Amino acid sequence: MDYDAQLRLQAFLDGELAEAEASEVTDWLARDREAAALLEELRHTCEALRGIEAGIRLPESREFFWSKVEREIQRLEAPAPKPAPVPLFALLRRCLVPATAVALLIIAGVVLTRPTGPSGLTPAAEIETALADSGAFTYRDYSAGTTLVWLSYPADNEVAEDDETDIVE
Amino acid sequence: MTVKDHSSADDPTLVRVAQRGDMAAFEELVARHRDKIYARAYSMMRNEEEAVDLSQEAWVKGWQRLRQFQGESSFGTWITRIVINLCLDQLRKQKRQRTESIEAMSEESGGVERQMPVVTVNPTAGLERGELRQRIDRALGQLSYEHRTVLVLHEFEEMEYKEIARTMGCSIGTVMSRLFYARRKLAVLLADLKKQDSV
Amino acid sequence: MRAKVIPGTGLVWFSMALVVLAGGEVCARAAEMKLQAFLLWGTDDSKPPEGRTYKPVEADIRQKLKDLPLKWANWFEVNRVAFAVPQGTVKVATMSEKCQVNVKNLGGSEVEVSLIGKGKEVVKRKQSLPKGEMLVLGGNAPNSTAWLVALKRIE
Q1: Which of B8, B95, B114, C64 has the fewest CB within 10 Å, making it most exposed?
Q2: Which residue of B has its CA nearest to A135?
Q3: CA–CA distance, A120 with A109 (Å, rounded to integer)
Q4: Which of B55-64, B81-90, B93-102 has the lowest mean pLDDT?
Q5: Domain ranges, ordered by start, for chain C
Q6: Beta C145-153 vs C32-43: how paired, if at all?
Q7: How far is CA B71 from the centre of its chain?
Q8: pLDDT at C10
């Protein structure tokens, strides 16, 4: 059986042949056992694949997966940050009276080095470069002061071991 | 705050509501179709993490393009096509980065499937569904991405040859060759696996 | 004329002394960050694998993890490293044979954290980490478990 004939059998199975040609193939199959066997093999393979995807489930909870999708949508839709206001320090620098300028410098120094609370973060303050994984997802819990960076790695990843009993040692 | 319950609405209703900006309606659509989208991505990528990422990306793109969806197909079909295209883009990118093995190149140039003896035993006979799924999984993982993709688009997405050709950017003849090779190789792999497991 | 200038000059010198003292205090405060890094393993099993003596995580960390969108029911502490990072320096905390976390103190509560896995830099993150706050880096692990590197600022 030549290659074109084999492909014709496949097209017949897939309903890609015009009616007249399909009818010719039906006649051919009735007299050619090799062709009939090949068609049967192709049919078995199709049947084996049927419904295979039905048992596959997304391995993340509804809430977690949605939180990632939602966060990404919000990130992409967020307006560009406004330009930072002129720092107080720059305004203060213009004051030329020595004692007052020095006193204000002290105050500015104290203010700028005070640890910032959660609301002190601006988008520009956080920069993340995921080198091996461009799918990193970030979640911030402002009330608890926790930042989560979730890296999408295959199970065999750079940090955990392959064997779960040897996961990190 | 009252959260609207969208669980009883049908897909077209949810789409209309989501198109007006209702994220909760979109979330319901995600919940309904997420497994199918992930399954399609997994079938193509054969990697759980990549499939999750691409599923996520598909949903984000789905939201961004939702206004363009006019109901010409079902929502499920529409979002599936988005994830398929994302997977194809990713696979093409990986192909450019990956050195082709000799076997993969010989698969591409074809020929071997024409001489394979016909597998006369039905390799799926007598198998539990779960076991069959595992075998198919292993066998699919052994195909090259081009052959697996054409198989997935035809068998799972039920695309016709010409649509597959358009999606993959190749000729109908190439689609037919790849599909034939993929099916024949799968039959041999399944038969081999059956033999191995029974030894 | 000279009598009027002297008090002004004295005031300037006094103010400058205040600046030096205040600056010193500021520098001292920003000088060093005290951190604890935890390597954690997440699972839905109620106990660690056989042969492993991982402890359940401390209550405060468990509470913080509970508020994150992580699906695993239980977290175990695999390793813990406490260290201090002076301003402008980088400290390396080795969490396991294959996992390190590098922390650079950029000053003003800003840190740059790099996670190294199997010798490769996996992710780098720059952010503010005030006292009491925690940065958690994580990912999936085999058999539907998870790994986390949690970096908590103590001081």
Answers
A1: B8
A2: B53
A3: 16
A4: B93-102
A5: 32-153
A6: antiparallel
A7: 22
A8: 61
If DSSP codes are grouped into helix, strand and coil, which group holds residue B148?
Answer: helix
Say which residue the tokens 């079902």 belong to.
B74
Test A129 with C23 for CB contact under 8 angstroms: no
A49 interaction partners in chain B (CB closer than 8 Å): 136, 151, 155-156, 186
Give the tens place of pLDDT for each residue, B76-87. Answer: 999 999 999 999
Alpha-carbon torsion, ordered B128, B132, B135, B136, to 10 deg: -170
Residue A16: inside a domain, yes or no?
Answer: yes
Distance from CA of C31 to the nearest CA of A (A): 11
Contact C115, C101 (CB under 8 A): yes
Mean pLDDT score, A17-34: 93
Question: What subunits make at least 3 CB pairs under 8 angstroms with C?
Answer: A
Tell me which residues of chain C, numbers 7 to 26, contact chain A at a CB-CB cutoff of 8 Å.
8, 11-12, 15-16, 18-19, 22-23, 26
Q: At what angle do helices B48-65 and B23-45 cross, to 10 degrees?
A: 140
Across the interface, do C135 and A147 touch by the CB < 8 Å criterion?
A: yes
Q: Where among A36, A54, A72 does a domain terminate?
A: A54
Query: Domains of chain B: which residue ranges?
Result: 1-98, 103-199
d(CA A49, CA C32) in angstroms, rounded, equals: 61
Spatial contact of B63 and B78, defined as CB atoms under 8 Å apart: no
Minimal Cα distance from A70: which residue of B?
A: B60
- Identify the architecture of domain B1-98 in CATH: Orthogonal Bundle (1.10)
Q: Do the Cβ atoms of B155 and A50 come within 8 Å?
A: yes
Give how many domains chain A has, as a whole number.
2
- CB contact under 8 Å between B64 and A76, yes or no, is yes
Partners of C140 in beta bridges: C146
A113 touches chain C (CB under 8 A): yes
Min CA distance, A73 vs chain B (Å)? 6
Q: Which CATH number fits domain B103-199: 3.40.50.620, 3.40.50.970, 1.10.10.10, 1.10.8.60?
A: 1.10.10.10
Residue A164 lies in a domain: yes
Contacts of B30 in chain A (CB under 8 A): 65-66, 69
Q: Is residue A71 part of a domain?
A: no
pTM of the model: 0.54
Q: Residue A136 sits in which domain range? A: 129-169
Interface pTM, i.e. ipTM: 0.84
B64 three-state secondary structure: helix
**Sign of the dihedral through C-alpha C123, C127, C130, C135:** negative
- Using the Cβ of A150 and the Cβ atoms of chain C, whether some distance falls under 8 Å is answered with yes
